[in-house]
Amino acid sequence: MAAAAQVVPELEHPNKAFGWAARDPSGHLSPFNFSRRETGEKDVAFKVLYCGICHSDLHMVKNEWGFSMYPLVPGHEVVGVVTEVGSKVQKYKIGDRVGVGCLVESCRNCQNCNDNLENYCSSYTLTYGAKSRDGSITYGGYSDSMVVDEHFVVRIPDELPLDAAAPLLCAGITVYSPLRYFGLDKPGLHVGVVGLGGLGHVAVKFAKAFGAKVTVISTSPHKKEEAIQHLGADSFLLSRDQDQMQDAKESLDGIIDTISAVHSLVPLIGLLKSHGKLVMVGAPDKPLELPVIPLLMGRKLIAGSAIGGLNETQEMIDFAAKHNVRPDIEVIPIDYVNTAMERLLKSDVKYRFVIDIGNTLKQTS
């Protein structure tokens, strides 16, 4: 059973903002007036134009992970245009196209932070629903403006449309980082992608852009045509078909597993070549069984990966712009957000909702 949600008072700040928030674990979102902090000397303030809807937003508005704080303004795939910069900001100027992903603060002193792995800092601050270092609660991108330390801002290249850039700030870096770190980013390798949703479809696109051969692995036979004809995968495996899985045994150099439901790892391990890597980026809510003997027989590896550091996130965005990696999106107005959440719960989207904040938020204020 989820822990009780917290309701927090708002600190008084002079910068008024407007967005949509959930007030309780029903998850229903509605208009909400709040305040942003003043733009500090190292801060970048920007007008939000688009914000992607991540599946974690759905978990958070309903307090399914037990630590939501209300009112809660979701959104950590946020893009827009700079409106103000602090006196010590060096990388950005007014008018720049920018984005913010899952993090807005970290300690900046630990080994992980020194290694540009802010995502693994033990005291990072999430973009929304977290207590900031100044004591205020962070509010996300389902809103008209953001104020963020420039270190946690990325530049969006002109070649990349802003609406398509938004989901890359979570879904994109979540799959890009393990492909790079585990050496699955080289031409000629054979990479499997488990699941063809918001994460999986972007994983296919990045792996293909790296020059890999890509096999999509799914429980849904109707996704075969989509995987091959639309997303460009080289082959498709129906994981429930034992003959198909047996024929593909020991054929993959690595697998990116995007599934957040409980599922068996044994069939996936069987697909790996010796020294192959199964990387988990989904987050099942219950423990998975870990079979050890199949790992021993081939020196195979099971690992995990969560988003990426800021340098790598910028690298990912630049790579996507250069190689024309674009998530498949459905752009929606803000007043459709509750319906979008219901559809997301049923996986009824190809493959990522993006809210048109700039053109629709002010119409409901």
UniProtKB/TrEMBL annotation:
Any Pfam family matching the protein: ADH_N
Cofactor: Zn(2+)
Keyword list, A-Z: Metal-binding, Oxidoreductase, Zinc
This protein's record includes keyword Isomerase: no
Domain Enoyl reductase (ER) span(s) in chain numbering: 27-355
Domain of life: Eukaryota
Keyword Cytoplasm assigned: no
SUPFAM superfamilies: GroES-like, NAD(P)-binding Rossmann-fold domains
Protein family membership: Belongs to the zinc-containing alcohol dehydrogenase family.
Name used for this protein in its record: Enoyl reductase (ER) domain-containing protein
Naturally occurring in which organism (per UniProt): Stylosanthes scabra
Organism ancestry: Eukaryota, Viridiplantae, Streptophyta, Embryophyta, Tracheophyta
